[in-house]
Amino acid sequence: MPAQFQRKGYAADTFYDGRREGSHPDVPGAAEAHYLLDNGRLRHFVRDREIYGDGDKADHIFKVTAGIVRTYKFLRDGRRHVDAFYRKGAVFGLELGERYSISAAAASDCTVISYRLNGLPMYAASDERALLHLLPSALDCLARAQAHSLSLGCRTAVERLAKFLIAYHEGTSSADERPGSSDEGAGSSNDIVLTITRKDIADHLGLTIETVSRTFAELEHRALIELHGARQVRLADQEGLRELCL
Amino acid sequence: MPAQFQRKGYAADTFYDGRREGSHPDVPGAAEAHYLLDNGRLRHFVRDREIYGDGDKADHIFKVTAGIVRTYKFLRDGRRHVDAFYRKGAVFGLELGERYSISAAAASDCTVISYRLNGLPMYAASDERALLHLLPSALDCLARAQAHSLSLGCRTAVERLAKFLIAYHEGTSSADERPGSSDEGAGSSNDIVLTITRKDIADHLGLTIETVSRTFAELEHRALIELHGARQVRLADQEGLRELCL
DNA sequence: CGAAGCGTTGACGCGGATCAAAGGCAGTGG
DNA sequence: CCACTGCCTTTGATCCGCGTCAACGCTTCG
To answer: Which nucleotides of strand D lie within 7 A of protein CB?
Structure first.
């Protein structure tokens, strides 16, 4: 009923691309916002390669430079929950305790920079100024985690997938990993290429792969998207998709 | 399948009581961890009174001193999602942007300290050292938000409620707001008094009040809890309840 | 005592899980 | 070049947990 809740046009959740904190020029030292990652080590991971495991010592922070990273967790019964996806520019591996509470792996082939902490939990690292610059990343993760539990708690399969596609699109549309033609030309800007599997999507949205597949079909049936193979999706009616969000 | 994922005995999520960050003595200046809240203003709220609204200027940070605060959001269709509950010692109102993305209200009568920021988004506040001490709070919120989406994404009504009860119990058992007798005596330590409504629980767990009610009955039927009225619950079999968590 | 909230209980239907099978598609080897 | 193999995805049939609708009990307060 309250009217001020109608915040519109922001559907992105769980796709971290580091744009939000970068867009705040009044952060002290924003230019080197994650400068502590600059002297890190570049590492490449093939799809499904684990980057760190739930329970490992949390002695690194990471930043994605290419591809998509997922954070996830296995349940006792073998089920898997995918917490979030991280894209170019996003920081992951932030932990309060001295061990990771969740695993991270490459959802597609990807490249990350890893920065080694000096054996201390990150809130206790020696460089306070560097740590300060992690607060925006942490708050960004937090906001997206909250948005995601809202989706999981309140929304149907169609709505969750619609939101996912919008978020995925917003995550790539400004980046360089565009499908098809290399020039920034005509209106092909609502094509997306899913470099992650149906299973990753399903485990993230709290659905099964069968339901995800059926829901893709449903969205196509409603003329909101066009499927060209399993991985290539055109967002035929972005307005309609956004209608379904939140 | 991986064995190191079996982290046991930590079921608390979404109940923030500020114990975790306080338990890290190696945080620089942990004693005054939230000292920036010390010169704040004490405020009292009756149940359901809004503390701040989604969309308001995010110019305050809060710390709970008594009672339970919920953060929540209304959806367009009138549904409500309760993101988290905050208890004595917990900090809430942390935001990346300059406006709150979620509302906060008193889930029970409660008292909070509000600290006014100087008109800037909090990551840009003048006192960097003070800000630094918010990082643990933010990371704690983040971990719990992640745990909560896991519950919502993967678990059944019975499992969610079991986890909720364990978390609620862990949140009160060490605090002073104990039910019944005032002395720290015999084994009544697994009685809890729910000061929040079924609706708050339902909206938090992504269920309806009917299902929550039925699930309480189911847990009692399985002899995991004993209900003495709607608000007083004895955790008769904590081990059994924990079996259901995660 | 009546009214208003909150909580419980029952009947029924639907959305998504489960079980089962078959259709692309890429990589491999003959 | 084509058959073979394994993985990912789709599609169909059935089942079940939870939502929905409806009615009733309990408590509180005027």
So the answer is: 8-13, 17-22, 27
CA-based angle A121:A73:A105, to the nearest 5?
75
For residue A119, the model assigns a pLDDT of: 64
Interatomic separation, CA of residue B55 and C1' of nucleotide D21, rounded (Å): 35
Contact check, Cβ <8 Å, A142/B143: no
Mean pLDDT of B167-173: 88
- Whether B76 contacts B5, CB under 8 Å: no
What is the residue whose two structure tokens read 């209900």? B227
Whether the per-residue pLDDT at B245 is higher than 70: the answer is yes
Q: Other CB atoms closer than 10 Å to residue B152's CB: what's the count?
A: 23
Beta-bridge partner residues of B61: B115
Of the candidates B246, B222, B244, B195, which has an alpha carbon nearest to the alpha carbon of residue B236? B222
Write down the pLDDT at residue B38.
55
pLDDT per position as a tens digit, A107-144: 999 999 998 887 666 666 556 667 777 888 999 999 99
- Per residue in B32-61, pLDDT (tens digit) is 444 454 578 999 999 999 999 999 999 899
CB-based contacts of B100, cutoff 8 Å, min separation 6: B52, B53, B54, B55, B56, B57, B58, B93
For A26-75, what is each residue's pLDDT tens digit?
A: 443 333 444 554 578 999 999 999 999 999 999 899 999 999 999 999 99
Å from A210 (CA) to C18 (C1')? 10
- C-beta separation of A95 from A122 below 8 A: yes
Q: Residues A202, A208: contact at Cβ < 8 Å?
A: yes
Q: Which residues pair with A91 in a beta bridge?
A: A63
Query: Which helix (H) or strand (E) segment is A193 a member of?
Result: strand A191-193
